[in-house]
Structures are given as structure tokens and as C-alpha cells.
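Justification of resources, computational component.

The compute hours requested in this renewal are based largely on the per-chain cost of generating structure records like the one below. Each record pairs the submitted sequence with a full C-alpha cell output. That output is archived, and it is also reused by downstream analysis tasks.
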Amino acid sequence: MENQHKIEAIFLDRDGTIGGDDTVHDPGAFQLFPHSQELINHLKEDGIKVFAFTNQPGISEGKATSKDFIDELTKFGFDDIFLCPHSHSEGCICRKPNTGMLMNSAKKYQLNLENCVVIGDRWSDMLAASKANCLKILVKTGGVNLH
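The structure output for this chain reads:
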């Protein structure tokens, strides 16, 4: 019973949550917030898996590649990167607020999503977390702060 409430993984949104602002910045132009790197490192030191969890429709529009985002996010220290490359009109199951990225990670890492946390700056992050029964933390660093 003791492990029942242990945090298994934390999913961090990219744009507006760990850096940037309410718009998408292509890899290379994206800047982390001052303490984001330190916090990612601390979580990993505590044995918690830290995953990037991001919608990147610019990939389907040819503005950047999945590899560009994966390379950037890997440099920040994420254990794995779950990204949706689709635009809102493509009707995929991975684009937040859908739960495809969370479900894929749960399958890949044998996670109980009820013991995972989603941290994001938009309602779509929170809705995906709710649908997947994850704990959720809304930060006011990006999209939410502007509405």
C-alpha cells in the first residue's frame, strides 16, 4: 500500500510551462524559464520519470521536424518525449485534450496514470490529465495568464 501514492512520472508541457510563452517557438529559439532545468534535474534525482508532453502542429505544417523537438527536449534531460505533430483539424487521438500521449506512455512504461502528474499552462493540458485520471497542476506562466 505504501507505493500506491508514489509519483511514478511527471508530464511537463513545453510551450508556456517550462519556457517560452503562449506561442510556439521552434527548437533553437525556445528558452527555458530560469528554474526549469534545475527542477527537471531534481525530479530525476528523486527517481521520478520526467516526460515532455507537447502538441506541436508546426511539424505537420513543415515548420520544424519531430527530430528537432526530440533533440531539443532530450538536451533538457527529459526521460522521454511524447509529442503530437498533428494540427487541430487532423482529428488524431494524441493531440491534447485527447489522451493518446498519456496512454502511449502508460503502455510503454507500465505506469498507473493515477500516480502521475501533468503540469501545464492550458485547459487542454488539464482536460487531458482529467480524462486520464492523472493529478494535475495548472501553472500561470503561459496561456492561462493571458485569458
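The domain at 2-146 is CATH 3.40.50.1000 (Rossmann fold). The longest helix spans residues 36-45.
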